[in-house]
Amino acid sequence: MTKDKIFDECVEYFSQPGFKRALELIHRKYRSLGRFSGKIILENPSEEEKEALSRYLRRVLRGEKVVIDVKDFAVTKFQDTKFSRLDFKSILSAVLKKEVITKKEEKELENERVSDFFKSLSAHFDKDENAAVVLNAFKENFKSFESFYKKYSQKEFLEIMKKVIEAILKKPQSPETLAIFATRVTGNPHFFDDEQDAGKIFLKLLSIINGREFPQNAEEKSELLFDNNILIDELSNWCLLYNIGGYIEDGKEDEGLKYFSNQKKPIILPLYTIKDYKGFFAYSNKLVVVENPAVFSAIVQRVPAISAVCTNGHLRLSAKIIIGSIAKTDIPLLYSGDFDPEGLLIADKVIQNFGARPLCMDENHYLLALSQNKIDERRLEMLKNVKSAQLQSVCQKMKELQLAGYQERIVDRIVEEL
DNA sequence: ACAAACGTGTTACTAGCACG
DNA sequence: CGTGCTAGTAACACGTTTGT
């Protein structure tokens, strides 16, 4: 009889249904121990199982529980069969139709696969020193990319990573929109869109290389990309300005903004336009920042000499760039917003980031601005994120009253202060 | 003595909700 | 309709316990 024939015969023998459960358990034991030892326990064995196992182990098995010594099963008793020249492990593998390896071997195998992956990736960027830096950052932080690695086949992931790393190496020297940038690098304008995995991976790696946290929201995303000369939402991310000038290059004032200021006309600038300025400044000796466009409008009409920025809700990148730039010119910054959790959170950010002074945002003005609108528990929770000392007392009062207050009601007081 | 299993505490994602 | 928040859940790492 040839070796193959006896192997097949052996597989057939162990494939009988009575062995199935026992062999599965033996397989599990081997995975954890790395050898055939220990005990397995079959609860409630069927007659079929008892019969098959009794015959093989040459002892009578009965009762609700069958305990089998794995070493006895796989080594001692196996030696006594006519299959003794065969390897029990390969038989087990053939019967269960799966690999018989330990957890440790499994890990090592996986590590090897990952290391092969890195090798192929490095090979693609052969001798490029800049790439080596990026590759290193990727390797060292591989953990945070593992979910993507698992999601794709190695080949697919390799292709994605090639493009992502290429993109980082080719990031623009002067501002460029994401769609144009993606087309330049990959031929596909949507390749790095942030709902795509490639976009997420790109952002992740970019944030690591920039030594930053991964962007938590749309604004942080815009900001990270903007700092790398990539623009998203370049037309929808805008900011409302009044009496504010800009520098085209150092010291050279922009005539366009100057014209609108002289005309006392508010204007809206999108990120797309903002990107071309070197800096911004206020024509007035102070800057007032407001959340609400209606209040902005009232202030501009009644105090025409003021310089003003309207954030129109949450602080967006366009407003941050302009306010940040004006803050550097060392003039006082005043902020006024609504008295609700969102409004105080915005105020907190403006105070923390740009050293602004709250304008009419104390407890007294809160009481004047008070409405009947209830604030629920969940929204009140947000108040605990307010860090500024200047806002603590009004936060306290709000938790007490659980009512919102609106800027519109205190426009007169705001105007008086300016 | 060693590795695996278990339990616990922390972190990363996801879904659902309220707001503008 | 998109956004940011919280809370719930899954994944993960660490230290301890258990079994051979």
TrEMBL record:
Residues 269-418 form the DUF2399 domain. Residues 37-244 form the Conserved hypothetical protein CHP02679 N terminus domain. InterPro entries: CHP02679_N, DUF2399. Coiled coil: none annotated. It holds the Pfam family DUF3323. This is DUF2399 domain-containing protein. The lineage of its organism: Bacteria, Bacillati, Bacillota, Bacillota incertae sedis, Caldicellulosiruptorales.
